[in-house]
């Protein structure tokens, strides 16, 4: 059997130094220069004296989220949620905080979604909040519990019509055949959500992360960042400063 020459359009077949390779190199260099040229905290940042922090993290978190909203941070209640599957493979996504109270930090999803499946086998998670206008981050980690069906339903039906419509579409994280299929399902869900504002969504589940560790990070333009970490141990909160 004779060998066939490689197709000339194949990237592996390009000889070094071709115009296409030079263009790729130029794009890569331009991207690196873009990253290096982006400004970080090119605004006046608030100060934070950890000596004035409360003995528990919840009041400080509520204060920082409120101040982020007042500073014009869009959607300051969005957060990053990290979970892991049975093998320990992590996954991360952005979603909305629904509440933060003495029980913990609340969020919701379908039980059959990727996050729901992972929390079923590994009921621990981490949350991350970032508010660039004030140079602040908050990290929260701990075990996650599932609220009951009544509380989960109440969480959903206290939200917007759009939130209910999205929940009614369901099938989160499943493979989608086409955008047309999604459009049809979404249109039907919107119609039902408007017609039945209390329509049940049995898979909708409210989760509560009970914090064991909460870190508050205040950025500083001279990189003297303040990091205050709360750890829950022996029935009380302990505080410690961390090197930036």
UniProtKB/TrEMBL annotation:
A Gene Ontology biological process term: pyridoxine biosynthetic process
Top-level division of the source organism's lineage: Bacteria
Disordered as annotated region, ranges: 1-24
Family matches, as SUPFAM superfamilies: FMN-binding split barrel
Cofactor(s) annotated in UniProt: FMN
Domain Pyridoxine 5'-phosphate oxidase dimerisation C-terminal: 204-244
UniProt entry keywords in alphabetical sequence: Flavoprotein, FMN, Oxidoreductase
Signal peptide (UniProt feature, chain positions): none
Pfam families documented for this protein: PNP_phzG_C, PNPOx_N
Comp. bias regions, Basic and acidic residues: 1-12
Molecular-function GO term, any one: FMN binding
Protein family membership: Belongs to the pyridoxamine 5'-phosphate oxidase family.
Cross-referenced NCBIfam families: PRK05679.1 (NF004231)
Name of this protein: Putative pyridoxamine 5'-phosphate oxidase
The organism of origin for this protein: Streptomyces lydicamycinicus
């Amino acid at each position: 059997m004779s060998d066939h020459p490689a197709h000339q359009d194949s990237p592996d077949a390009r000889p070094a130094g071709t115009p296409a390779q030079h263009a790729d190199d130029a794009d890569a260099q331009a991207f690196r220069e873009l990253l290096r040229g982006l400004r970080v905290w090119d605004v006046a940042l608030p100060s934070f004296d950890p000596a004035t922090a409360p003995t528990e993290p919840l009041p400080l978190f509520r204060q920082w989220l409120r101040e982020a909203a007042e500073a014009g941070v869009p959607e300051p209640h969005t957060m990053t949620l990290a979970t892991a599957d049975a093998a320990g493979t992590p996954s991360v996504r952005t979603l909305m905080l629904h509440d933060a109270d003495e029980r913990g930090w609340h969020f919701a999803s379908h039980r059959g979604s990727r996050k729901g499946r992972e929390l079923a086998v590994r009921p621990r998670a981490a949350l991350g909040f970032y508010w660039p206008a004030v140079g602040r981050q908050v990290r929260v980690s701990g075990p996650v519990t599932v609220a009951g069906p009544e509380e989960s339903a109440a969480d959903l039906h206290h939200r917007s019509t759009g939130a209910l419509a999205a929940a009614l579409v369901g099938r989160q994280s499943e493979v989608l055949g086409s955008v047309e299929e999604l459009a049809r399902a979404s249109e039907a869900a919107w119609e039902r959500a408007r017609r039945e504002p209390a329509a049940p969504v049995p898979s909708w589940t409210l989760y509560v992360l009970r914090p064991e560790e909460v870190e508050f990070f205040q950025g500083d333009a001279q990189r003297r960042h303040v990091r205050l970490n709360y750890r829950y141990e022996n029935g009380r909160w302990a505080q410690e400063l961390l090197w930036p």
